[in-house]
Amino acid sequence: MTSPTTAPPADEELVVVRPVVDTGVPLRARLVSGISVILAGLVCVFAWGFGANPGDAEFALIATGDTFAVPDLEVPAEATAITLGVVVALLGVWQVVRGFSKRQMRWVLVAVLLCFVVAFLCWASTGSPGNPLNVPGLLQNTLLLATPLVLGALAGILCERTGVINVAIEGQFLAGAFAGALGASLSKSLGVGVVTAVIAGGLMGALLAVFAIKFLVNQVVLGVVLNAFALGITGFGYDALMQSDPSTYNEPGFFAPIRIPLLADIPVIGQVFFNVNIIVYLTYILIIVIDVALFRTRWGLRTRAVGEHPRAADTVGIKVLRTRYRNVIMGGMVAGLGGAFLTIGAIGGFTKDISSGKGFIALAAVIFGKWSPRGAIGAALLFGFADALQSLLSVAGTPVAIPSNFLLMLPYLATLFAVAGLVGKVRAPAADGEPYVKG
């Protein structure tokens, strides 16, 4: 038998309890990020929208060598920028009122960044009517400028996932660039140049490993010293050899693009991604290999264990010091390949301080990407886009003249704002920068 149900007394009010949605984001962080997004939306509306010249924004979508002709895209500049700004502002309001979860916030930031950039390009394109902005060219420059940053970021991840801070990426770039140009010039072979660049980067990585792991030198200070050492020795080599006899020591040439049939015929992006030189294709392969190896293999598990808790890793039989030596040297070799791109992959010659701070931007990409290959690649592409954009705006007209010095600062400002404003609180590997002494 079932017991009869009793109705609640007439004088009692039925209370419905609704679950409280907890986004896992503290109120202060939610307010700061939400207000920042709202401000970005207001900039889109008032600066890029109302500040645009009358007329349409024109974008060229065809690149040299494209098989299929794609007509230029024309959109109302003011209306598009204002609409995108309103969307961004609404996302900021939602973040303040309700809040997105951490996982959702990643995609919100991507959407905000995309809307902001498109609104800005709409504004910029109205400064030169009849001269559309070349989108494939902008994307291609972004990829080429981001390639050494991606390789440097991968080098940093390989080192820091085992607990060794790699501030010496800049020096590894310089060593790889110098050795690549010198080796290719002397041997008349670009392949030899790549090999010598990788070896030079590996030697710089070995110096970092020996002093950080064996002699327990402070890793941040050590990285700065190695950068100064690389800058000095490559500058001396340039003055002693390359400048005095460039035809012998500094005319390596550079890799020509390799076009992949069918894939290169894809409209807009085909020429961007599949008509590039061999070092860029090697970068594609390294991205996949390192990401899969780090999170899907036994080597990756041991690497991450050494970076998080080396004492526990040692107790289960993992060779902590050997793992650190191996990964730091491998990281140096990857950065050396990035240095080779700066010379034999791009301009075909070495100049003093050719890296120009790219190693530090790559290190910022590691932090911005939260020590993940995928995140670091996204950060490197962002910084490469900022660099490509300043090159584009320096030759294209804008509604308001932008000072050239500000344009040169653009990639570094993007790095600063990204790391300071977008990353928020991040956690490095627990043993990052901590020397391990086997007791």
Topology:
Layout: H1 27-49, E1 56-60, E2 73-76, H2 77-97, H3 102-125, E3 133-134, H4 135-160, H5 169-187, H6 190-214, H7 219-242, H8 246-249, E4 258-259, H9 270-274, E5 275-276, H10 278-296, H11 298-308, H12 310-315, H13 320-347, H14 358-368, H15 373-395, H16 404-422
Question: What are its keywords?
Answer:
two-stranded antiparallel ribbon; 16 helices; three-stranded mixed β-sheet; 5 strands; mainly alpha; globular; ABC transporter involved in vitamin B12 uptake, BtuC; 2 domains; 439 residues
**Assigned CATH architecture of the largest domain:** Orthogonal Bundle
* CATH topology term of the largest domain: ABC transporter involved in vitamin B12 uptake, BtuC
Total count of domains: 2
How many distinct helices? 16
Low-confidence stretches: 14-21
Structural class: mainly alpha
Report the strand count.
Answer: 5
Question: What is the average per-residue confidence, as pLDDT, rounded to a whole number?
Answer: 88
Strand order of the largest sheet: 2-1-3
The biggest sheet amounts to: 3 strands, mixed
Which class of the largest domain in CATH terms?
A: Mainly Alpha
Radius of gyration: 26 Å
The global form is: globular
SSE sequence, one letter per element: HEEHHEHHHHHEHEHHHHHHH
**Approximately how much beta-strand content do the residues carry?**
under 5%
Q: How far do the termini sit from each other?
A: 71 Å
Residue share in helices?
55-70%
